Amino acid sequence: MSDVTAAIVNSAGDPFCLQSVTPDTLQPEEVLVRIVGVGICHTDLLARAGALLFPLPGILGHEGAGVIEKVGASVSGFATGDPVVLTYRSCGACPNCLSALSAYCDDKRRLNFSGARPDGTSPFRCDDGRPLAAAFFGQSSFATKVIVSESNLVSVPADVPLEILGPLGCGLQTGAGAVFNVLKPQPGASLVVVGCGAVGMAAIMAARASGAEPIIAVDTNAERLALAGELGATHGLSGRDPAQIVAAVRDIAGHGGAEYSVECVGRPDTVRLAVECLRMRGTCAMTGAASGQSDIAIPAQTLLYGRSIRGVIQGDSNPRTFIPHLIALWRRGLFPFERLIRFYDFTDINRAMADAASGAAIKPVLRMPQ
Q: So what CATH class is 173-313?
């Protein structure tokens, strides 16, 4: 039996089952990481439901942080004992990767969602020899130890608690990057955030750090709006009537609406709302994980006046520079993302997933036994 325990989903919609798994031999470019903490993201919910076509049975999880235990023969930038955050995998050779836009890697689908390494093998198998899909986002970090490629790794300072850092590898860099890397608001620019989950809260904190004002948070949950206010939102709007929300944004921001909006829900109606909150020539950063079958209906007249929608994956970030930047902001009190986190023992993964799905927890993080 191995010393690796993983949370496995056997078929779409099933609960997670913790069981022992056997790791494969490290390939030259791979490392073995002992996971300390791993965040739960909405994408994990989608994958468990079968919406991402990730093969099952398999291991999910893609916001891991831990310590390197072993390195492959060709790994040069990392060593045993290094603390790391795990992010998505990329090829490093396509035009986007070479332009520091690895979130748009040409080989993104195969490297992150196929359930296997590039050579078709899996990093893990069941102890009885049954095949097991893994390498979700190149990591499958709902496990006590993971095998990942060097491209997944981001070095982090040794004096920062690893258990809080995993969410920086996906959800938090998505929201913060939408503001810092895509919209780039100047001080005094008006900005709306639609949806105050982890991605939206990260966008709000980034907007405050950028000097944007007003920062308008939109959500139906009063508790989340209150927290958004503590994290930097100057105004909070609740309700389900889009016309009333748009009117309120126009009243607060003036000039026909906000200069920028960040959509963090992923439904066609919330994307339309985020666009309609904009003034002429405003820009919406769309980060929500909308279904691939969803059509977004926006009147042509709305777009004719210079408004634009910009899809954003992983905050357009270069994780190896952007995640350390977010940690530096956290040290200065400008990005207090730990306030979003609720910890769960690894054995409570199904409760944590339920709380993520219901909205009871903004950012559940699983603590691994050490």
A: alpha beta
